[in-house]
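Long-time lurker. I teach an intro course on protein structure, and each term I like to show students one example going from raw sequence to a predicted 3D structure in token notation. This year I'd like something fresh instead of my usual example. Would anyone be willing to generate the tokens for the chain below so I can use it in lecture? Attribution to the forum is fine with me.
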Amino acid sequence: MSDAKQVGIVLVSHSAEVAASVAELAKGLAGGGTEVPVAAAGGTEGGGLGTSAELIAAAAASVDRGAGVAVLTDLGSAVLTVKALLAEGDELPDGTRLVDAPFVEGAVAAVVTAATGADLAAVEAAAAEAYSYRKV
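-- Reply from a regular --
Happy to contribute to a lecture. Here you go:
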């Protein structure tokens, strides 16, 4: 890893398996370019379904490379947990942003964009743009 600042990405799901699988998919589809720091924060500390502020905060710290952290979530309480962490102000790295994007498509767009060295605003915009992807 170079010393260049890079956007980190955290994927928050109610399921550890879903978060890890989406992270693997997004990194795989980003190709062999720059290795983007991506962390999955799924489920509870005990391995059950749910969300954990502690797991989310640890994941965000693990991917912080000084250019901000984009957090994508799956459902309701994951969003609320991230919002609560952001409101506390000292639980997440500076420059952490909750990104309003579809979980799978947004994660892929975020990782692919971050791999180009883009800044947090561009990563967020690419992920949010995934809402417009039509399948039929």
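Some talking points for your students: The chain has five helices and four strands. The beta strands are 8-13, 38-42, 69-73, 96-98.
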